[in-house]
Amino acid sequence: MNEEIYDIALTSIDGTRQSMDVYRGRVLLVVNVASACGYTPQYEGLEALYRQFRDRGFTVLGFPCDQFGRQEPGTDADIQKFCTLTYDVTFPMFAKTKVNGDGAHPLFKYLKSQKKGFLGMSSVKWNFSKFLVGSEGAVLKRYGAADTPAAIALDVETALDSAGVSAA
Fold first, then answer.
1. Mean pLDDT, all residues of the chain
2. According to the model, what pLDDT value does residue 168 have?
């Protein structure tokens, strides 16, 4: 089991502090999101994926990021309102986060160190990049912004099956 990921501290979109440890044993899809991006409609697919598999031990974690084209300019409260009203998002959302550079959040530093992106690059290239994390904390796969939640569903199901979690 990879314990390092479970030691990382998080701040939810409402300001509550928590640890990644609350997600121990779950399959996770960690996504940097934005409200004004061409890929923003993926919120619908992310929510559908979450609702499809949450009872089997799957969670989507959304991290708003304003590092790409200033496509997430609002406050955490603005972002939460947008996600709830526009896409009925019920999966956990977190405070606005940097995914690259000196101020990158420790979770994204960790994820990038475990799975390199296109051409072996470590930096996140755009909004709606995704990391699939297995139930024991290992980063299983990394996806680009154009990889839709529907296209990832089989990988999520495979990770859940590997975790020994059967369909309800």
1. 91
2. 44
Selecting among 37, 65, 83, 156, the annotated active-site residue is: 37
Amino acid at 96: K
User: DSSP assignment of 73-128, as one string?
Assistant: -S-HHHHHHHHHHHH---S-BBS----SSTT--HHHHHHHHHS--GGG--S--STT
Write down the pTM of the prediction.
Answer: 0.93
Question: Catalytic residue at 37?
Answer: yes
What's the pLDDT band for 123 if we cut at 50, 70, 90? confident
Show the domains of the chain with their CATH numbers. 4-162 (3.40.30.10)
> What CA–CA distance (Å, rounded) separates 38 from 165?
34
The 10 Å CB-count burial string (b at 16+, else e) for 122-131 is eebebbbbbb
Strand 139-143, strand 130-133: pairing: antiparallel
46-56 pLDDT, tens per residue? Answer: 999 999 999 99
